[in-house]
Amino acid sequence: MKKSICALVISSALFGCGSTVDMKKSDAVSAQPELTLKTDGTFWGFGPEGSFDIAGLYHGKYSRSASTSSWFNTINSKEGDMVAEITRTDSGETWTLVCSGGGTSVDLGSFSFGGNGPYICQISEAGQAIGEYEMARKSEAISLSTAKKEIGFIRLGSTHFNVESIHEGEGLLMSVDNPLGYSFSRGSQEIAAAQTNGAITLQTLANLPNTEMNTLALGTVASALSWRPQE
After folding, report:
1. Is residue 231 part of a domain?
2. Least confident of 69-78, 113-122, 160-169, 186-195
3. pTM of structure
4. Which domain holds residue 81?
């Protein structure tokens, strides 16, 4: 059995030559100011534990891990976990995210079966469950594609947004395998976009109520700071 831990992710983040292409987003969202999410902790915020701040509006801490195991180059098991605490700075409201996901896949030649279990976060406040975040690979049971498109949702109380990973970037002729960011929408309208390629930023439509801003902040942390199981 071979097992690789997310030290590889740290190495890639620190020393890789990744691009800083901006994700595609609606004109209405693009016109809004960027709220930057900054991290601090082990490996300068790229490691398994640390703290974060979102433009002084929200702050918190996180602990995360991910691993991939392989047996006989055929059966692959993936696991990813994160616990995060998020506090709204002006009110002191605090939420806890407890996240996990992964699955087991079987590879037969160029075919892959299964292994796309959803990544789920339970959201609680003062010990009471009040919401959830869920993302799953958008793929068929048998897939030849390397695309890693994800779709899902986040709910905090009665506030709900659809969430979708974005693989199209400004100036790119083709989509990329890994997400450049995540789009939060209601119906056909994009409400916010979280850029995760390069600097982590959140842009939202203007004058959103506090309940929606809280939900989007939690969704950004769940989307941007989690370590998903690597393929």
Report:
1. no
2. 69-78
3. 0.81
4. 2-225
